[in-house]
Amino acid sequence: MSFADIIGQEAASASLRASVKNEAVPQAYLFVGPESVGKMRAAAEMAKTLCCLNRALGGDDACDTCVNCTRIEADQHPDVRRIAPDGEQTKIWQLWTRSGHPPGALETLHFAPVAAPRRIFIIERAETLNEEAANSLLKALEEPPPYAHFILCAPSQSGVLPTILSRCQVVRFRQVATGVIAGALAARRGLSPTEAGVLSAYAGGAPGRAFRLADVPELREQRAALLEIAARIGETERIGAFRLAEDLRGAAKTKIKKGDEDGDSERTARGDIVRAVDVLTAWYRDLLSLSLRGNDAPIVHEELREAAGRAAHRYRPEQIAENLETLLKFRRHLLRNANTQLATEVLMLRLVPRKAA
Ligand SMILES: [Zn+2]
């Protein structure tokens, strides 16, 4: 992997490479942008580039083959530490050693690096630092040793303590266009344009999410199960809505092991339902397209065109549009701590077709 492999973040990559080339790398970065758009990938590339044994003066990319590059890529380098939240928070013992816990990652800060020219601390999801941890990090950022670099990552600047923010150079990462993600999926995973189109449509602008959908078979199976439920909604009467809600909650449950997925929000039961809602939303978008533009209209779920066509005919176009609106509202409602059982039941009651008057 190199900077050139980071999908759709040309501006961020160019600015990072320029700072390496000019030997003007700040000691603290804050990479800001949505989940799974490439922040951690860029942090790893930056660490490799700074530690690479083969990079000539004025070079701006890592060789990817020296011992430092390969160890950093495998997250096995003694001078490069990644710190991820423990549950919902990043806590003080993860930074500084506290009794009853493994050694804190920052304990090495004041020792010269052992295998690389620098020491690099990558803090994933810096917005989860609790107050104690954030204050102690601030102290480290105030007077870092000359060989130390910090790369903090966060979805936005607003979750980061202003005093920490003021010590960091901010680099922005953006949502990536669906077409760009589809192109990368086709090129790197050999997916057909149709498959790549479906997965990129689900990625919400985050290439990391699209590649997980391609690489984790359980996620593919889950999507198929959710689409099956989506197709059943159009054939169900109000009385069947509770059963649909139960099936939806069952199918939404993440069956994959920790580490295969995104950060915390996506691992919770609520996160599971949100993902299921995204599948339903994509389905109703297809129905709307078919309903308004006819059977040959472009849709995401090409492989389900026939079933989608049948489902589209069970609704009036206005009702499909209403259902999309309902899903959007439901998603927001859910993110504000709604009870998932009750909420999914109400949702299904609203989505099933209404009998013509
Ligand atoms: Zn190297």
Oligomer: single chain
Write out the strand line-up for the largest beta sheet, numbering strands in chain order: 2-3-4-1-5
Helix segment tally: 15
Task: Let me know the number of strands.
Answer: 5
Please mark out the parts with pLDDT under 50 across 5 or more consecutive residues, or reply none: 258-266
What is the total domain count?
3
What is the fourth-level CATH superfamily of the largest domain? P-loop containing nucleotide triphosphate hydrolases
Briefly characterize the structure.
It contains 15 helices and 5 strands. The chain has 357 residues and is of the alpha/beta class.
Give your account of this protein's structure.
With 357 residues, the protein is an alpha/beta fold. It folds into three domains: 3-172, 3-Layer(aba) Sandwich (Rossmann fold); 177-215; 216-351, Up-down Bundle (Zinc Finger, Delta Prime, domain 3). It is 50% helix and 7% strand. It has 15 helices and five strands. The protein has helices at residues 10-21, 39-51, 67-73, 92-95, 131-142, 162-165, 178-189, 193-202, 207-215, 217-233, 241-252, 269-293, 305-313, 317-335, 340-351, and strands spanning 28-32, 80-83, 119-123, 148-154, 169-172. The protein has a five-stranded parallel sheet, covered by helices on one side. Helix 12 crosses helix 13 (305-313) and helix 14 packs antiparallel against helix 15 (340-351). The radius of gyration is 23 Å and the shape is elongated. The N and C termini lie far apart (60 Å). Residues 258-266 have low confidence and may be disordered. Zinc ion binds at residues 52-54, 62-63, 66, 68-69. Zinc ion (ZN) is lined by residues 52-54, 62-63, 66, 68-69.
